[in-house]
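Students often ask why inverse folding is considered easier than folding. One informal answer: many sequences map to the same fold, so there is more than one right answer. In these notes we will look at a single instance of the problem. The structure comes first.
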């Protein structure tokens, strides 16, 4: 990609947390961070599935279906959460001799959620029961349509609950009003897993949870659900079960990505295993990923894994080309604070991830629009921390056909002739919402540390705060001053590798997603860094390294 020189250091406003920064002793700092984040003494317990409203009704209907040998159609989604959730439920129902089958929609032809098409197929195959996984809560009309056709629908979902609930036989959702479920942030697969637990109890099945937990962990990470409460427990137990060999499929994907189980963390699980399992669904259909996860014969499993690997390389290639083209277009209008770009040839499964790449490079929100396979124009947008994309688009939603999203990401469909009007409206809206231009996003600094005094024990103790993710980021420390001795881009130019010289020691450091930062802004300069210290083992030698979030030059 061309160098945009778009990002000036420091990238963030450093905000020092008063609760944790006042401590100087290492042990006190970790304790203060845990307390500050509400994690100290937090029990991270699993809650009873029966606390989710609709669970009882759902179990009763499914048990009847099993008893009467009725066919059951599991309707999942095209992303990792919807795929693994459907696969888990299918595996369990099969183990209980149910006549279960999976339907996974394609992004291109079916779109997200319960479609008329999938209901018609169920009717044609005389399937009397559909169970949704990771979708359905907003499919009011189509659930009604299924009902008219004599098909019962059980909805299991975790998406935002609309004011009018669909007319389903049962709704299994941790946030459905009047629910007494204590943890609202389950993933779609997490909800499906709760249904499995409830069914298993009813059936007196001999369930080994360890076969399911790695999938739930993966779904939480790839769906970017908050890593708090029950989700922390799921990730910890899921990774433990994975390491103990309970999930040969995820293990194979992780190894293919270069991450043997001994070193894999939630981060790599999300990035590498997640993007592989997502690749078939992005390019065409998610069915291949489901086939892979359901294959039990090792040679066939390896064969499908290779195919997924090829698709993932192809996905990456197309995505790179798309992102490069979009970046060129965006740079021609770099004076604008937000980029709304369109090209009918872009791949509709990849505009979201490409938008995210361009955003990372320029630091601006980016919306990419393409003409989909069915002739409809579709858009996908991404915004950096500190910019609320939802606030920019929502007032103009009347120009769109479907629109959904939140502060950081959105998706919609639009008529071709409206694109120009939409682009103009979004630029105007940006000036209304951000009259002073770009707000600088903030990061929280947990403490100022003297790098020469950092001990291995402290670095190991940081793990007490893990697993990390949304709602529980890795703690950042203000470290310095350092002289930057070397600086090189690695990983295809995405990451910056630095060697830092401190008072009487040297440390290596890695700055992930550092694209757009000019080498001249760091090389040879005196800086302080916002970073997390890590112990890195290489050739049997343990080294203290820094994972950098931001750099602040001190000598300017
Ligand atoms: Mn989901």
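Output (designed amino acids):
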């Amino acid at each position: 990609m061309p160098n945009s020189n778009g990002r000036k250091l420091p990238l963030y406003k450093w905000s020092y947390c008063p609760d944790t920064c006042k401590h100087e002793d290492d042990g006190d700092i970790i304790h203060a961070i845990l307390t500050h984040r509400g994690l100290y003494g937090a029990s991270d317990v699993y809650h009873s599935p029966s606390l989710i409203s609709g669970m009882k009704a759902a179990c009763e209907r499914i048990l009847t279906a099993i008893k009467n040998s009725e066919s059951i159609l599991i309707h999942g989604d095209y992303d990792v959460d919807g795929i693994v959730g459907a696969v888990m439920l299918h595996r369990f129902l099969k183990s209980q001799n149910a006549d279960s089958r999976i339907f996974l929609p394609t992004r291109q032809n079916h779109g997200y959620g319960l479609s008329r098409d999938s209901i018609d197929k169920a009717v044609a195959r005389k399937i009397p029961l559909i169970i949704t996984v990771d979708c359905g809560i907003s499919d009011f009309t189509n659930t009604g349509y299924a009902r008219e056709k004599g098909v019962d629908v059980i909805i299991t979902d975790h998406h935002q609950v609309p004011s009018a609930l669909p007319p389903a036989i049962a709704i299994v959702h941790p946030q459905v009003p009047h629910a007494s479920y204590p943890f609202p942030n389950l993933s779609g697969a997490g909800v499906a897993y709760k249904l499995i637990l409830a069914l298993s109890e009813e059936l007196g099945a001999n369930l080994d949870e360890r076969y399911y937990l790695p999938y739930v962990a993966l779904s939480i990470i790839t769906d970017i659900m908050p890593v708090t409460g029950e989700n922390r427990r799921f990730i910890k137990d899921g990774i433990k079960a994975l390491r103990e060999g309970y999930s040969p499929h995820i293990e194979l994907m992780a190894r293919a990505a270069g991450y043997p189980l001994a070193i894999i963390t939630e981060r790599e699980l999300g990035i590498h295993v997640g993007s592989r399992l997502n690749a078939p669904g992005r390019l065409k259909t998610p069915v291949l990923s489901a086939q892979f996860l359901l294959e039990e014969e090792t040679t066939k499993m390896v064969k499908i894994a290779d195919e997924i690997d090829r698709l993932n390389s192809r996905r990456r290639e197309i995505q790179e080309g798309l992102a490069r083209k979009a970046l060129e277009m965006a740079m021609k209008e770099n004076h604008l604070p937000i980029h709304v770009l369109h090209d009918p040839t872009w791949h509709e499964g990849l505009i979201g991830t490409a938008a995210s790449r361009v955003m990372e490079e320029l630091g601006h929100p980016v919306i990419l629009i393409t003409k989909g396979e069915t002739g409809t124009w579709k858009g996908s947008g991404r915004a950096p921390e500190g910019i609320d994309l939802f606030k920019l688009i929502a007032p103009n939603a009347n120009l769109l056909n479907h629109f959904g999203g939140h502060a950081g990401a959105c998706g919609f469909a639009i008529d071709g002739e409206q694109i120009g009007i939409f682009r103009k409206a979004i630029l105007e809206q940006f000036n209304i919402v951000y009259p002073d231009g770009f707000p600088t996003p903030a990061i929280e600094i947990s403490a100022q540390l003297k790098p020469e005094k950092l001990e291995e024990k402290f670095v190991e103790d940081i793990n007490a705060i893990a697993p990390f993710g949304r709602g529980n980021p890795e703690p950042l420390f203000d470290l310095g001053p350092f002289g930057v001795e070397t600086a090189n881009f690695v990983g295809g130019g995405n990451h910056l590798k630095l060697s830092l010289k401190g008072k009487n020691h040297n440390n290596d450091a890695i700055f992930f997603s550092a694209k757009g930062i000019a080498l001249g802004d760091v090389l040879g300069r005196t800086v302080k860094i916002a970073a997390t210290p890590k112990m890195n083992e290489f050739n049997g030698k343990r080294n203290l390294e820094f994972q950098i979030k931001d750099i602040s030059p001190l000598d300017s």
